[in-house]
Protein: Peptidase S1
Organism: Actinoplanes utahensis
Amino acid sequence: MPPPSPPTGGAPLEMPPNPDEPRRGFGMIMAICLITALLAGGVGGTLGFVFAVRGGYVDASRTQLGASGQQVPESTQRDPESLAGVAERVMPSVVTVRVAGAIGSGFVVSADGYVITNDHVVEGADETLTVSFHDGSTATAKLVGRDPESDLAVIKVAKSGLTPVALGNSDEIAVGDPVLAFGSPLALVNTVTQGIVSALDRTIQAGEQGGTTRYYAAIQTDAAVNQGNSGGPLVNGAGQVVGVNSVIRSVGGSDTEAGNIGLAFAIPINQAKRVAQDIIDTGKARRTVIGAEVRTGETAGGARLRSVQPGGPAAAAGLRAGDVIIKLGGHPLEEGTDLIALVRKYAPGAVVAVEYKRGTATASVSVTLAADVK
């Protein structure tokens, strides 16, 4: 018969004392206890000495958190060239624009209070708006002028001593350059996100159904941009504004469902600066034209001219109705919308190279763009 299995899960069984085993005397027990106490004291003293010498002694009455010997920096000031330094420098110039319960963004471009924002941010606003700054202060602002077709507007803040942003050159940026997007996405004021320039001259056609159609050759970025970022600055690594955040591409079925998926688009600052200066000087913006109408929605391997204005820039360069412009300024075109957007990127008077097809022949000309008469 096999022996029983030992019990599991409980305390070990105690064996009864052996009555025949000789007992230790009281004196011996005391001697053992005394020796044990002395040994414990000696070891403890030795270990305490070692820890004290090596700096590892910890008072048992206190708990030390964190590593010892680290120096706490006297200031949290960041290197001005770091991203944190750029954010610190730009943030005082960024404003939150509030219009009839809606929120957008903008940025100060002059010490006397001119602010660039998107046209769709101030759309529907009366003469007076409200803006708030990064420090929580607020001020009223007046609408100076709008240009719905370029989606740009200028307002003027009733506050002195403002710090304008530094404006960069959007023609000098390259794909892969780091950028920061500033603004108030989803009413979260003083928000900064980081990304890179994903593409240049991305032609955009935007606008609400039944409203103004907006065309521009945009800077594409993967910086997180959401509703409320509109009108805020897109800034390069040197702290210079290179674009105006304006529109996002989203998988949402409506504006209320739209959200960041890494496809955001900004109006180049060179175009925004030119339009803003026109608005400040004259109250309205000039629109750059090539003097021809195009067929939109047609895939012709370029922009097919439907008509050419007599005496206009295209006609003066020898272009005719039916010609298909395949490149403008070296940028390939796929259809008519591309031509409209890219032309408006340039200032009136700019001379651009145009490559076109007439029948099976390909030719090139230079076209001097002009301003339309409104």
User: Anything to note?
Assistant: The chain has six helices and 21 strands. Residues 166-282 form a domain with the Thrombin, subunit H fold (CATH 2.40.10.10). The first helix runs from residue 26 to 54. The first strand starts at residue 94 and ends at 99.
